[in-house]
Amino acid sequence: MSFHPHVPVRDFQLEELQQTNNYMKGNRKHVLDAATIRIMKGNNEMAHEKPKAAIIVANENHFVLTADTIEKIIAPLLTAPTPFWCTYESIYSACRFAVVVHDDRQRLHNTLRQYLDREVATSLCKILLEAEEEPVEWIALLVKFCEWLETQVALLTSLLTFYDQVYVVKYIPNVLPIHDGAYNVFDERIFGNPQLAKRLQDSLSTWLHWERDNYEPHEYRETIPKLIKHLTTHNQFAAFEQCYVNNAQSYYQKESEKKARDLLDDPLRFFWDAQTRIQEEEARSQAVLPVGSWGRIRQSISARRQGRMKNVEQIVKDSEKDEEMVQRLLDMKSLADDALSSAFLAAPRTPPAPSTSAVPEKQPDKAFAYALNTAFTLGFRGRRNKPAEMIAKHLHQSLRKGQGTLGYAEYQALLDAALALYRFSEDKDVFRTFYHRLLAKRLLVGKSASDDVEAAMLKKLKEKYDPEFGIGEDMFKDLTLSKEMMKDYHARQRKESLANKLNAIVLQRSAWPFSVTKQLVDLPADMQREVNKYTEFYKAKHSGRILNWDHALGTASLKARFKAGIKELSVSLYQAIVLLLFNDKEEIPFKDIKELIRMEDDEQRRTLQSLACGKKKVLKKIPAGRDVEDDDVFRFNADFDDPHARVHINSIQAKVSPEESQKSNENIEGDRKLFLDAAIVRVMKSKKEMTYEKLKTATIDAVKNHFVLTVDAITKRIDELVSQEYFSRSDEDKNLFFYVA
Quick one: pLDDT band at residue 174, thresholds 50, 70, 90? Predict the structure, then answer.
C-alpha cells in the first residue's frame, strides 16, 4: 500500500511524525511477485546494508537521514523485495533535509535518474527480451511489470514529496516530477524499444489468430483489458488500436479472398459466413476494447463497399495487366451480381394487395446494390481515362471476333456486360473517342464481324448511354454511298481494265476520326494511274469538293511465288508498296527503300518490322533482330511457307500502339479545354453576371456527361478567359464576373 502524505514545505513536527510512524508500521513490507524479484539480484547486499551514522538529531523536533543514506534507500525502494530497515517517515524526513537543509538536491536528482534508467528500465527491458514465455503469456508478464512500476512510482512519489514540491518546482522547472520522469523512461526503454514493440505486436496477433481460428475465447483473454489500461496510462493505446485494426483487416482480407474462391458457386454461404465473422468480432471488441474502438473495428471488417472499391482500384491500377483489366472487372462484377441476387434479398416495402394471399417475392437489397455501384465508380477513379479506354478496346475485340459458337442471346449478353462497366466510368469522352477510332478501323479494314451488330450497338449507345454516338450513323452512310459510287465507276470500265480491282471509300472528314495525311507515299506507277483516273471521275460528279487520299488506311491483295507455291497475301497498302519493290530486286537496303517510296520514317520502320520480324516473315532482315535500324538490309524470303493458300499478315498500323493511345489521350485533353471554354462562355453569356462559386457549379453541371472536372482546371480556364477578355472581373469583388458582349 502506498502512502501519500502531501505535507506542505515546513518543519515536520515530532508529534506528526509519531502519528505517521504508527500508521506505517503495518505497511513496511514491500513484497514483489516472483517475476519482479528477478529484476535485481546484485542489489540485495546494498539493500540489507545498514548505513553508518544513519540518524542525525538536529534538535528535539527534527530528525533526518543523511543524503548519502537516501542513495542506498532508492535502490531497495525500486528493486528489493525485503522489508526496509527504516520507517517511511524517516525517508520522507531525509528527503526534506537533503532538499531544503543539506542542499544535496542535485545529488538526489542524479541518483534517482540513475536508478530509474539503469536499474529499472534497463533490467526490465532485458528480462522482457529474454523471457521464454509463450506469446500470450508474455503479455501477462508485461502487464505484471506495468502494475509493479505504477505501484513503486506511486510509493516513491509519496516518500520523496519534497523533491517534487521544492526541487522540481522552485529550483529547476525544466526537470520532470518523479511520476512523469519514471513513466518517460519506461515508455522510452520498454514501449519505444523496436524489439519489444515487435514482440508485443506478434503476441497480440497470436492471441487474435488463436481466437479466430478456434472460434472461442483464449484462457488469457482477461489479460488484454489490463494491458489496454496500462497502455492508456502510458499513452500507447493509439498504436495498439491501429495494430488491432490492421490485423483484423489483413486477416479478413485473406480469409475473404480464400472463401471467395472456395465458395464461388455459393455466394449465400459466403455472406452468411461473413456476417457470422462480424458478430464474433463485435463480441470480442466489446469484451476487451474500450467503447470508442468498437465502431472502428466493425468498420474495418464490415465495410464491403470499401473492400470492393479497393479490389476494383487494384485491378484498374495494375498496369502490367492492362490487357486483362476488363475481363477481371467482368468476373468481379459477375460474382457481385450473383451475390446480390441470392444473398442480399429483402422483402418489398409495398405490401401485397389485400385480396392476395401469396407471399411477396424478395428483391435485391437496394442498399447493397447502391454500395456495389459506388464501389465500382470510386474504383474507376483510381486511374483516370484508362478504364474507359480499355472497355472500348475490349468491345473492339468482341466485335471483331463476332458471335462465333455462341448463341445470339449469349453474344448480346457478353456485349451488354462490357457496356454495364462503361456506366461506372466518368470519362465518357475517352470511351467515345477510342470507340469511334476503333469502329472506323473495323469498318475500313473490313474486320467487323457484322455490320448489323455494329449498327445495333451504335443505336444502343446513342439511346441508352450517350447521344453523341449518333455520329456513327454518318459513317455507315459514307460506306453505303461509296459502294454505290464504285458500282457506277466499275460499270464504266472495260472488263480487262485494272480499274475493276480498285475499291475506293470516300469519307466525310467530319464523320471520321482521322486527320489529313501530311505526306503521301509514292505508289507504283500502275496504282497511281488508277488513283488519278478515279480522282477525275469523282471531281466530275462533285465539282465543289476536295478529295484527299489516305493510303495508310488502304489494304491490298497480292499474289507471291515462293518455293512452296503461290500464296495470296492479304496486307495493308503500305506493306504492298514495300513488297512490290522486290519484283525488281531481291535485296534492298533500308535507306534505298526510303528513297524509292518516300514513306515517313516511323511508318516505314513499322511496315518493315511487320514483314520481316513478325510471325510470318515474307522478308528477311540482315542482320536478324526485332528492331529496324538504318543499316539493315532486306531480302525476299523465298523459303516462306504457310499451310493456308491465303495468308493474312498483321499490320502494326492496324493495331492501337502505345504511341497512338498517348496521342489520342493528348487530343482528348486538348478537346476538353476547348469544350470547357465553350461551356464557361455559354454559362456567362446566359447569366451575364455570376459569382465564382455559381459559375463553378454551373460549369461542372454542363460537362458532367462528358468528363469530370477538377476545381483547379476550372480556375485556370476562367483566368485564361478573363485574360482573353471574354468576361471581366469586378474591381470591388474578385469573385464576381461580368460577361463582355
Answer: confident
CATH, domain range 14-192: 1.20.1310.10
Whole-angstrom Cα distance, residue 451 to residue 453? 5
Q: What per-residue confidence (pLDDT) applies to 68?
A: 54
Helix (H) or strand (E) holding 305: helix 304-317
Residues 339/267, Cβ–Cβ less than 8 Å: yes
Q: Is the dihedral of CA 554, 556, 562, 564 positive or negative?
A: positive
- 684 with 726: CB under 8 angstroms? yes
Question: Which listed CATH number (2.30.29.30, 3.40.630.30, 3.40.50.880, 3.30.230.130) goes with 551-656?
Answer: 3.30.230.130
Q: What are phi and psi of 558, to 5 degrees?
A: -125, 150
Q: Give 550's DSSP letter.
A: -
Which cell is 130 given? Answer: 529474454
User: Amino acid identity of 504?
Assistant: A
For residue 571, report the phi and psi dihedrals to the nearest 5 degrees. -135, 170
Q: What is the DSSP letter of 620?
A: E
CATH for the 659-739 domain, from 1.10.10.10, 3.40.710.10, 4.10.800.10, 3.20.20.140 = 1.10.10.10
All residues at 6 or more sequence positions from 268 whose CB lies less than 8 Å from its CB, including other chains: 339, 342, 343
Alpha-carbon distance 228 to 231, whole Å? 5
What's the DSSP call for residue 692?
H
Where on the phi/psi map is residue 402: left (φ > 0), alpha (ψ -120 to 50), or beta? Answer: left
**Nearest to 700, CA basis, from 686, 688, 711, 685:** 711
**Cα separation of 657 and 437, whole Å?**
13
Cα-based distances in Å from 694 to 273, 683, 691: 49, 10, 5
Give bridge partners of residue 556 from the DSSP assignment: 571
Same fold, 14-192 and 199-302: yes
The yes/no answer on whether domain 199-302 falls in CATH 1.20.1310 is yes
CB 577 within 8 Å of CB 597 = yes
Average pLDDT of the chain to the nearest whole number: 80
Query: Residue 687 CB: number of other CB atoms within 10 A?
Result: 14
The three cell numbers of residue 281 are 468480432
Q: Would you state the cell numbers that stand for residue 150, as one nine-digit string?
A: 505504477
Assessment of whether the complete model's pTM goes beyond 0.90: no
Question: Before 623, cis peptide (omega within 30)?
Answer: yes
What residue type is assigned to position 554 of the chain?
G
Residues 438-447 pLDDT 10s: 888 888 877 7
Q: Mean per-residue pLDDT for 263-271? A: 70
Domain ranges of the chain: 14-192, 199-302, 551-656, 659-739
| Spatial CA neighbour of 206 closest among 147, 270, 251 | 251
